[in-house]
Amino acid sequence: MSNTVFYKDTFTKISEEKKDIVFTVAIAEFAAMGYNATNINTIAQKAKISIGSLYSYFESKEDLFLAMAEKGYELLNKALAELHPEEGTVFEVIERLLHIAFAYAEKHTDFCRIYLDLSTEGLSHLSERLTENVETSYVHVYKKLLAAAKAKGEVRADLDVDMAAFFLDNIVVMLQFSLASSYYRSRIKLYLGEDYAQDRKRIIAGLMRIVKRSFS
Amino acid sequence: MSNTVFYKDTFTKISEEKKDIVFTVAIAEFAAMGYNATNINTIAQKAKISIGSLYSYFESKEDLFLAMAEKGYELLNKALAELHPEEGTVFEVIERLLHIAFAYAEKHTDFCRIYLDLSTEGLSHLSERLTENVETSYVHVYKKLLAAAKAKGEVRADLDVDMAAFFLDNIVVMLQFSLASSYYRSRIKLYLGEDYAQDRKRIIAGLMRIVKRSFS
Lengths: 216, 216
What we know:
The structure is a homodimer.
Chain A: H1 9-13, H2 16-33, H3 40-46, H4 51-57, H5 61-80, H6 90-107, H7 109-118, H8 124-127, H9 134-151, H10 161-180, H11 182-192, H12 200-215
Helix pairs in contact in A: 2-3, 2-7, 6-7, 6-10, 6-12, 7-10, 9-10, 10-11
């Protein structure tokens, strides 16, 4: 299943360089300001194209925003390709997952900001237009991984796979949000202290202890 | 420590009934639309007051929004007063906490929507104006509770209190978000199925199993 395409044919015909400029500018604006406060004229100006050109690439601000969300979703799927859920024990896989999630949030902070914005009630008319989203891609990976681990006896026999998958995703989401906005950055420092909050290894080790204890 | 006051003196002088109307309308608008898409004229209209009166109560749309956030914060503190962190075992307290968090999210869904919005990067200029927020009130409760449980030997001796408190808050935040927006409501159904996702008791029981295993 794939999403609707949110750009027009015209957009596929421009140079990769020009595409990159439009994406880079739009992502930065939407991430910093939020969807509603972003001005599509500012995006055109900063990308050094006319507003007419921008509308010839994207039907509306909505479509431009959703095209950006889709781009982030592609990058996430690319990052998840490094998960190799069949290699090693379930806990090795989960540890790789946390590293991937953390690295994604650090490298693609702007996309995490866009996703956080997209999850608010005010933007539900937009998130509803995505037939596929970050969640659908994760949910299957998690459930399959945990069901296989249960069959192999790597986790306890009475593990509730659905609840464990939900719990695992909560950890991933909160880890990514913790880097995604000033609000969550302050929050994690409040809990873990300035140094700890910046120590990726320590955070992942702490979370892995929790995951191992609750799944074993 | 208390927040700055976000309303003007004039607001304290109007009837409780009139105050309630302004609050009810403003909360519903901000929650459904998000801060940026909310029109302060619409709030005045729906509350059946002039825009001049509204500005005589609140300096700006920003202040009105922050006054609403503060109201939610007061209600949450009121709800947390039922926690009684000194009564019963640490796991009984945590179970009460999850029930309180769930009940708050069901009863005050609109406030959860406002908090979700407030946590986005685009609204960091607003969240920074709150000297105190939901997080500061929770962080102390959690750390104190877990440190006391450690001293009493109710949790394992090597429990990392900071990480455990952060982990506990992640559960509470995700539980509240799961009810706060259409996006998260779809997500929880994707993980737990239509029936399970609506079964408060089952969700809390599932989370308690995870908490007990990881803290014991």
